[in-house]
Amino acid sequence: MHVEARDLLDVNKAVFPNTVESDTVNIPLIGAVACGLPVFAEEHIEAQIPIATQLVKTPSDYFLLRATGDSMNTKGIDSGDLLLIKRQQTAETRDLVLALIDDEATVKEFRHNGSTVVLKPHSTNLKHQPIILTTDFKVQGVVAHVIKV
C-alpha cells in the first residue's frame, strides 16, 4: 500500500486534534519496514510529514517508516501504519525496536536474555517466530509512536 504525502497532512489533527500548524515539525518518511520477515534496508526520503512537536522533542532524532506485514499486529502495528522511530543504538527489554540484521530491517519487541537477544513478534499469524541473536545485529531506533493512517 502506497500512501501519498498529501493524504497524510491531517495526521496531526487525528492524533492531536488541538494541534495547530505552527506546533509541528517536518519528519522524513524514509520508506517501509517489515513487520514480518526482515527486508533489505534501503533508506531514501519519500516525503516530509508534519508531526506534532508534542511527539518529537528533537526533530533530528526522529524519522518515519511505513509498516508492512502482520508480525506486530497484536501490538497495534498494522500494515500501512506509520512508525515514528527515535534514533538510538540501545534498547530496554520490551521496547519495540527497529533492528538491522545483515542489512535487513525489521520491527520486533526487544528482549535481552543474558548472552542472547530475542526479537519477538506479536502476531495472530503463527508463522512469525522469534529471531534469536547474539551480537550480529544493530538497534537502529525505538518505536516512539504508531500513527494509524
- Tally of separate helices: 1
Radius of gyration: 15 Å
From the N-terminal CA to the C-terminal CA, the straight-line distance is 11 Å
The coarse overall form would be: globular
Largest sheet: 10 strands, mixed
State the share of residues found in helices, binned by percent: under 10%
Low-confidence stretches: 1-20, 37-41
What is the strand content?
A: 35-45%
Your description of this structure?
Helices cover about 5% and strands about 45% of the residues. By secondary structure, it is mainly β. The longest helix is centred in the N-terminal third of the chain and has 5 residues, at about 10-15. The chain is globular, with a radius of gyration of 15 Å. It starts with 10 loop residues before the first helix and ends with a strand.
Short key terms for the protein model shown above:
single chain, 149 residues, mainly beta, 10 strands, globular
